[in-house]
Design goal:
- The protein is α/β, with parallel strands linked by helices and 359 residues long.
- The protein folds into two domains: 176 residues, Rossmann fold, CATH 3.40.50; 113 residues, Rossmann fold (3-Layer(aba) Sandwich).
- It is 40% helix and 18% strand.
- Strands 3-2-4-5-7-6-12 form a seven-stranded mixed β-sheet, with helices on both faces. A five-stranded mixed β-sheet has the order 9-11-10-13-14, with helices on both faces. The protein has a two-stranded antiparallel sheet with strand order 1-8.
- Helix 10 packs across helix 13.
- It is globular and about 75 Å long.
């Protein structure tokens, strides 16, 4: 395939279309406004539907409706906008509706700024809405990786009947990179494969095939049964869907953990310090839910590893999962910035040397 230079937001939107998405509902907010802008032009060309909703709340409820028919539907927003969607996201999870949600993170809390951040990790991974639910959550570190993940994101959402969340950031959306775009998927809703979906029912049909999309279970017994079904799906996702990258960790004396765009900065640090004779490696979770706890523990619990440095653009939100994985087996330090200021390679190097020297 030929390489094409594309802006991240536009490339991710095109990938969703090529993965079979034919419905987009959203509302503009920087730094992801190019996604709905691109969708507004492309969806009519492929026979799809673009609709700019009156609010983020309206958009996620439109997602609920379209997903209930078995269609592949996507929405996008940025941090405060995703906060507004949280009730609807919980409804989608409760109704077991497959869909894809893009969060292009910006600085916070509140309105913050329009620069890149990683401050929504807790919101995405620990559950931003009410109740016991999870989202299959990917944290791509490049435009190409976001494209590649998008091409199977809807399949995963449909397999487990749960929403998929992309936890990206403003840099990925705004940068331009050469990418390979995949071929268009010929997706059509198959009522036999999606018997739960509202694909059409008329009097005289088998009542058992009548689709009912619902997330309310008034009596405690039925809600308990429903939650057990959800938990079984989450258990299966934990067992089968963990993704991570180990970069030069086999002989590393210091392992750095990072996700998303920050991991690219760390890779530069690893290469530069390796050239200076310092053995450093990177562990990057690609799925931040389910988090690859066992893989991280296996990576760092080697005799030569002196310590772990977690690097993020937040207060240390993923740090909690890093510490849970290691469970006190190695010393874990944190370095990060708030307010969308990314750590520099020199700052990260200084922290790595402290660990190497036992400080």
């Amino acid at each position: 395939m030929a390489l094409t230079l594309m802006k991240g937001s536009e490339a991710i939107a095109e990938a969703a279309i090529r993965a079979g998405a034919r419905f987009f509902f959203g509302y503009p907010i920087t730094p992801q406004t190019e996604i709905p802008e691109y969708m507004s032009a492309r969806m009519p060309e492929v026979g799809g539907c673009f609709l700019q909703a009156e609010s983020e709340v309206a958009a996620i409820n439109m997602v609920y409706g379209a997903a209930g028919t078995g269609a592949r539907v996507i929405t996008s927003s940025s941090s405060p906008g995703v906060s507004l969607k949280q009730e609807g996201i919980s409804y989608c999870a409760g109704a077991q509706l497959p869909c894809v949600i893009l969060n292009v993170m910006r600085g916070g809390p509140g309105l913050g700024n329009i620069q890149a951040s990683q401050g929504d990790y807790f919101q995405g991974v620990k559950g931003g809405g009410n109740g016991d639910y999870h989202l299959l959550t990917y944290a791509p570190s490049s435009v190409q990786e976001a494209i590649d993940i998008m091409m199977f994101a809807f399949e995963k959402a449909e397999k487990y009947r749960m929403p998929v969340l992309f936890l990206a950031d403003g840099i990925i959306a705004q940068m331009m990179e050469p990418v390979e775009m995949p071929e268009m998927v010929d997706f059509k809703v198959d009522p036999e494969k999606k018997p739960w979906a509202c694909t059409g029912w008329k009097p005289g049909d088998d009542p058992a095939k009548r689709g009912v999309i619902n997330s309310i279970y008034i009596d405690t017994e039925s809600l308990t049964v429903h939650n057990a079904v959800l938990q079984e799906a989450y258990k299966a996702a934990r067992e089968n869907e963990q993704m991570w990258e180990c970069y030069k960790t086999d002989d590393a004396e210091v392992v750095v953990t990072a996700f998303g765009t920050v991991a690219r900065v760390v890779k530069t640090v690893v290469d530069e310090m390796r050239a200076e004779g310092v053995k450093v490696g990177l562990f990057r979770p690609i799925t931040v839910w389910p988090f690859p706890y066992d893989a991280l523990k296996e990576t760092v619990m080697k005799p030569q590893v002196k310590g772990v440095l977690d690097v993020e653009v937040n207060e240390g939100q993923m740090l909690e999962d890093v510490k849970l994985a290691i469970n006190g087996g190695k010393d874990v330090k944190f370095f990060g910035h708030l307010g969308s200021q990314f750590p520099t390679t020199d700052e990260i190097k200084a922290e790595i040397l402290k660990i190497k020297e036992g400080k």
